[in-house]
Amino acid sequence: MFLEIKGLKKGFGQGEARVEVLKGIDLGVEKGEIVVLLGPSGSGKSTLLNIIGGIDGADEGSIAIGGETMQSMSEKRLTQYRRRHLGYVFQLYNLIPDLTVRENVEVGAWLGEKPLNVDELLATLGLSEHAGKLPTQLSGGQQQRTAIGRAIVKNPDLLLCDEPTGALDYNTSKEILKLIETVNRRYGTTVIVVTHNAAIAGMADRVIRLRDGAIRSNEKNAVKIPAAELEW
Amino acid sequence: MRNPLIRRYPRELRAECGKYLAIFLFMVVSIGFISGFLVADGSMIAAYNNSFEDYTIEDGHFRTGTPLNAAKREAIEALGLDVYDLFYVNLPADNGSTVRVYPWREDVDRICVMQGKAPAAADEIAVDRMWADNNGLAVGDTLTVDGAPLTISALVAFSDYSCLFESNGDMMFDAVKFTAAAMTEEGFEALSAGRHAYNYAYLYQGERPADERAEVESAKALAEAINKVAALEDFVPRVINQAITFTGEDMGSDRAMMLLLLYILIGIMAFVFAMTAKNTIYREAGVIGTLRASGYTRGELLRHYILLPILVTLLAALVGNALGYTVFKYICVDMYYGSYSLPTYVTVWNADAFLLTSVVPIALMLAINALVLRRALGLSPIRFLRHDLSRGRHRRAVRLSEKLPFLRRFRARIILQNRGSFLTLLIGILFANILLYFGLMLPVLLDNLRSDIVSSLPSRYQYILSVPEFEQGSFMAEVMKYGLRTSAEGAEPCCVTSLQTEKRPGYRQEEITVYGLEENSAYIPLDFSVPGAYVSEDFADKYQLKPGDTFNMIERFDDGRYTFTVAGTCHYPGMLAVFLSRSDFNGVFGKAADDFNGYFSDEPIEDIDSRFIAGVIDINSMTKVSRQLQVSMGGMMYLVDIFSVILFMILMYLLTKLIIEKNARSISMVKILGGTGGEIASLYLASTAIATVISVVVTIPLAHVLIEKAMRVMMASEMTGWLPLRPSYAVWGEMALLGVGAFAVVALLEYRRILRVPMDAALKNVD
Questions:
Q1: pLDDT at B99
Q2: N or C: at which end does chain B have fewer Cβ atoms within 10 angstroms?
Q3: Looking at residue B2, what is its pLDDT?
Q4: Are A84 and B666 in contact (CB < 8 Å)?
């Protein structure tokens, strides 16, 4: 198992105001899988993603990725963990506004040990002609493609996508999903996509449904639908 | 209902306490010091101005070779003057100083006793307070003058010596090696033993001349008239008496400079405030768009963002003024007493000081912030809602070569992104460097000048003999010449006189020493086969003269006007002088070919009657400028250095903080991607470091050029003499180290800020 989560719990607040966001999550993800974490707002899916990403801590439970357990990691090792294993894509892109498309991608390359070729990646992402532009000169889809480029250029084991199409229209969303699919296929990157859009579940190898901080279902898709054929 | 946005202020203050506290404290110190200075300045100027009446300061004085008899005195008084004896004798003290002893005065130029009691016995002496301070003397101490042990009974301020100029032609006063002193009549008689100078003060019987020009004209007429009655050795009307007038002129000029200093500092702080407020506006663009869409006017929002800077300035002005009137006033008064021999003062509470240090800074803060923020808030609500805050239609990326390594491009982008802040930083650092340069350079400059003077002095002694100018050609002068010969080994006769520079825009008129040298002088060897006059390098520098140029000089009390052509320059630091051959000199001034009135000598001349020696120029007298400036300004320069470094640190801290806050989301994102604190610092702090180092390095020579130009203008228009500013690379290095060192401290603090940027800053779904 590439990613193994056992008994993961997480709450926010103190005393009576405390809210248990994750109430004991157990799950495993195989290397190279596309996993869709599906759930309504407040179900705990983003919190789970942030804990997997090492940018938030769990109260209980363990996470192991490629055999390394996160709980025992110091802050320094957590940074190294993110650097070596993870790529992150957010709903609002979080591009560095004063860097060009190319330079934003290069930020990821700079942090990677064996980064992909930036020019080739820009071509794959369809961004070559926009390489010298600033994020403000791009459409939402182009910005998200840049964010994906930045996340995968360092050739991570695991790509975490938090509502990657949340701010995009239908056509652009499909473009982005196709791109994620391409990345998964071409580079063998394991992908976890958090979304509340059930239609996206079709492109996953595995679909995990969350509600009220607990897993309601964890199923393998018998038939994967290519992202290009998804409809909603 | 009160505007609910008001509730943000305390929260903003708490959240940004570091920024507000740094700016507040800096403004408190700046305003406090300047306010204290203005109060002290006003009080001291009042004390100085009042001293003319309170202590009946002379309208002028003159010295004669022989005492005035009743008839001569009557003849002079008939010119409309009241004449008072003001005899003195210059004597050496055991600490190496020259003590000018007067009998105690009751009628004119009265003396203010600052500490102790006026001398009552013949072995008691009252000395200048500042000179005593500089020489570590106090009331009750023994001072040996000309071998006679005397008890210091009082530390005093002579009303006619608020600046201790030994001679009116001196470039600078000397409160270290020269003092005026007073004794009882008996004490004076015993000490002077008939060696005193016949010096007389006068007061106009009627109205004083209306203005300075009229006073000078009147003085010229008086000098001529008195000279007809009694041979004059010296004539100094009050208007040109530096010992009396220098203080008033100097105090007034400091005031304008101090206010300018304050306003520049406030201006820089206002820009820092404006930059941070602008950053907040960009950060809160969504909220601003919503508020504007809900009906908030641009003016209301402008007032909202401008209020805190204004409140902080107002509070700093109030606290600063309170401290200025209580604490800083005394510091500034001490500075005045460290420079001038002023009488006791009464604090004059002036409203001007308060207005200039409160209303003007607040207005400045308001104007600069309004200007910058009005522009930032000038966009339509929809642009704020869309976070589309660029001024141009579409901001384009500045093209940077892809051949440049990624890190360099990244840092260049950060610098470009924050160019407004870095420009503010550059201007602030330039200003801090100007102050720092002034603080560090002046002591070095004075040291260099001193060692230059010492190493270049043509002879150990220069004797000026008292051939009375007014008796030129008379029988008496001819007789006196026989007493002016010396057998001292190596003594070389010369001619010396002084002429005044002509009136010229931007230049103060001043006395220039004109020498007539032996053709083959052993002391100042010059090639007199070249026609024209040699000038000292300082003279050439001050008046921008080069070989072949001509310049004019005039007689001070006469209509004589002389034109000289520059033959070349002569290295004679610390002196504004013109050099002619002795034969040319005597030809130009209409004297006998073999005439002379001075000696260059490496040996002391002891075989000429001291009555014929009008002055001796030696290392001691030549270095008084550097010595006095070091004493007057040494402590102040140290404060200036500290203040400049604090200014460095505050600016660097605020602007680095601003840049990190502005990029918090990007920093957070890099952290999420696995960037370490060190790596992020190498992006963001390194960019600031590069901009800071460039600012420091570029502004050092710029500061030199600006100070050099300012000093040139100021010294030409305000001061006599010349103090050339030459670059000292050691000082430049020291400045660079201090600037970079200040940044290193700030960088350490800001590195912690980078570490504190939370990763969830990038997760928030708001811009």
A1: 96
A2: N
A3: 66
A4: no
- CA dist B511 and B306 (Å) reads 55
B707 vs A103: CA distance, rounded Å: 43
What region, left, alpha or beta, does residue A117 occupy, with left being phi > 0 and alpha being psi -120 to 50 degrees? beta
* Predicted local distance difference test score (pLDDT) of residue A4: 93
What is chain A's percent helix, strand, coil content, to nearest 5? Answer: 40, 25, 35
Taking only residues 741 to 760 of chain B, the set having a beta carbon closer than 8 angstroms to any beta carbon of chain A reads 759-760
Q: What is the CA radius of gyration of chain B?
A: 33
Establish if B736 touches chain A: CB-CB under 8 angstroms. Answer: no
Round to whole Å and give the CA distance between B651 and B635. 25
pLDDT digits (tens, 9 = 90+) for B472-506: 455 555 555 566 778 888 899 999 888 989 888 88
Instruction: Write the CB contacts of B273 (distance below 8 Å, at least 6 apart in sequence).
Output: B23, B309, B312, B365, B368, B369
> Which chain B residue has the Cα nearest residue A113?
B674
Question: What is the C-alpha radius of gyration for chain A, rounded to an integer number of angstroms?
Answer: 17
Contact A107 B763 (CB under 8 A): no
Kind and range of the H or E run holding B248: helix B242-283
Report pLDDT digits (tens) over B502-533. Answer: 888 888 888 899 999 998 899 999 999 888 99
Contacts of B676 in chain A (CB under 8 A): 76, 79
Mean pLDDT, residues B80-84: 94
Closest residue in B to A80 (Cα–Cα): B674
Which residue of A lies nearest to B755 if distances are taken between CA atoms?
A: A75
A85 vs A67, A80, A108, A194, CA distance in Å? 12, 8, 12, 18
Contacts of B409 in chain A (CB under 8 A): 103, 106
The fraction of chain B above a pLDDT of 70, given in percent, is 94
First to last CA, chain B: 30
Distance CA B514, CA B499 (A): 7
Copy the structure tokens of residue B531.
Answer: 């026609």
> Which is more confident, B73 or B279?
B73
In B78-141, where does DSSP find H-type helix? Answer: 129-134
Among the listed residues B119, B107, B184, B195, the one whose alpha carbon sits nearest the alpha carbon of residue B152: B119
Q: Does A99 touch chain B (CB under 8 A)?
A: yes
Which burial class, exposed, middle or buried, applies to A182 when counting CB atoms under 10 A from its CB (0-12, 13-18, 19+)? Answer: middle
Angle at B124 between CA B118 and CA B126, to 5 degrees: 50
Residues in A closer than 8 angstroms to B417, CB to CB, are 97-98
- Element (H or E) spanning B361, and its range? helix B351-376
Tell me the two tokens of residue B562.
Answer: 């002389």
Residue whose pair of structure tokens reads 């002893």 in the numeric block: B101
Amino acid letter, residue A103: E
As a whole number of angstroms, the distance between CA B64 and CA B227 comes to 9
Interface test with chain B among A94, A130, A146, by most B beta carbons within 10 Å: A94
- Are the CB atoms for B581 and B517 separated by under 8 Å? yes
Interface list for A 60-79 with B (CB within 8 A): 76, 79
Please indicate if any CB of chain B lies within 8 Å of the CB of A132: yes
Q: Where are the domains of chain A?
A: 3-229
The answer to whether residue A214 neighbours chain B at the CB level (below 8 Å) is no
Instruction: Please tell me if residue A92 touches chain B, with a CB cutoff of 8 Å.
Output: yes
> Residue B465: what pLDDT?
81
Q: Given CB atoms, is B665 within the 8 Å cutoff of chain A?
A: yes
- For chain B, give the longest Cα–Cα distance: 105
CB contact under 8 A, A83 and B675: yes
Q: Quick one: tokens of A87?
A: 């790529």
CB pairs under 8 A between A and B: 92
Architecture of domain A3-229: 3-Layer(aba) Sandwich (3.40)
Tokens of A44: 């705990």
Q: What is the pTM of this model?
A: 0.75
